[in-house]
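Exercise: predict the fold of this chain.
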Amino acid sequence: MNLSDFVTKIADEYKREGRCRTAETYLSTLRSMLSFHGDSLDLSSCFTRDWLYSYQEYLVTSGLSRNSIVFYISRIRSMYNKAVKQGLVELQGGLFEHLFTKAIPTMKRAVSSNTISQINEADLSGYPSLEFARDMFMLSFYLQGISFIDLAHLRKTDIYNNVIVYQRRKTSSTVNIAVEPMAWEIIRKYESQTAGSPYLLPIVSGIISADMQRVYTNALRTHNRRLKKIALLLGIKEKLTSYVSRHSWATIAYHEGVPTAVISEAMGHQSEEVTHIYLKSFDQSALSKANKMVISAILKVSEKNQLQRNRLKKTHRLDEHERLRGG
């Protein structure tokens, strides 16, 4: 069977299920395989030790990072398992033994509570597009580190009795989030822009279409570009991306004493091997408590900064008074 036909069928099935991002990962892997081999490739040709090893060498010499190579090899292994299950190819023991199948730890993407507070307090009223990016960054943080793709696809019907219930697009795990006042403030700020739209926030188009993946990809690219500008404007040395709010929530939660298992559940890490062994069923009160603790940590920093500013103002006034008396 032709590889292109096989993978396209897999992608179409994922699209019908609404998992467009997963479908795109298979299609991007297909494009990579064809760029190495050529336009025509059979399943029997690519699922061999020699072909797979040569393809991996091609990726290495192309300058891809280790984790990018792991991404492609993992998708090919998934294709292979599906082909075996359908009886299209024979099962071969150890086919992926000598390939890159394990990701290596990447650089930390979290920033400190001080930096989160700085972003939150910044006056960006003169830059509407940057203010929107900042608000979405903070909303992601306030909603238990929800990923940008899940934030963008939240629907108004996902909120019931002050709780958001949604399925992660990456893992299909269900996540519950109690909406805190600071999150409500941002949501209501953009309510007028989502009138007539099924989506909670004005990140993606209100029209559901087959081209939604392209719309989302453009929105993510724009969001990250704006976050980069915010970092430059505020003198933040760390790289700001949509992932930073998510990773920062988890890191701050950990330092505030939130159990690792609660963090895993709050972020919907059910399918990740690193956190899977910790997962248990936590009630909503435990998750709400975790989120309150993280938000409280930011508020403490903001209050501390305000006290320092007040003290400086008071000192300045006293100095000015003494100067005038002496004059």
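Check your answer against the key: The chain is about 60% helix and 5% strand.
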